[in-house]
Automatic annotation (TrEMBL):
Protein name stated in the entry: Lysophospholipase
Species for this entry: Pseudonocardia sulfidoxydans NBRC 16205
InterPro entries registered for this protein in UniProt: OctT (IPR050023)
Entries under SUPFAM superfamilies matching the protein: SGNH hydrolase
Amino acid sequence: MTEGGSARAPTALLVLADSLAFHGPERAEPADDPRLWPNIAATALGARTELVAGAGWTARHAWHALTHDPRAWAAVPHARALVLGVGGMDALPSPLPTALRELIPVLRPPSLRRVVRDGYLRAQPELARAFARLPGGGPVALPPWLTVAHLERCRAAVTALRPGLTVVAALPAPHRAAIYGGVHPGRAAAERATRRWAAETGVRVLDVPTLVGDHVLGGHGNPDGMHWGWSAHAAVGAAVAELIDTGRA
């Protein structure tokens, strides 16, 4: 409370995200780089950014961070809005079950880890293309129902502490990444599930494909075919701020 007895205005934009929130056209950048979309959005709102993010994060990682990272707990009382910038990695092809793939970095000895990792990375593009020809497009990192379940856990946990807080969720971004064989059969189903959940819960939808599709698919972003150039960050940041400020897409 202030001296006059009124509550302080919220000062933070709490963002749970994958590497699209901190990776630019050449490399991963420091979280306070003003060109990144969370910082563009926060600046437009007169707020600061509380970014809790990691490379390769799915909605399940975001839920784990929200329940285990004290930075996130500290930001909730000060949040102007919650942005769920995860779900895109969930929809990517995953020829190897996610639980097994995530064990590769902890294999020992290091020589075995390198052999397994390099072999998987060589095989993944062709396996992704092969699975994409199957009915349903083959396995993804997380099925849409599980993505939505973890997004809902994040939303429910934060809004239980901050009723009425604005929540924004990002639709899965497009990619043209060679590492995934240039295929993305799971994206449409993930988008449908996210839109359905958002409509049921009052979550505002950030239409990432519309904002960055031409940029990414036209080869104007990072050479990896996944991450964005600065113009895409600017468009997404502005759109996030507008959703939070006005509720309009």
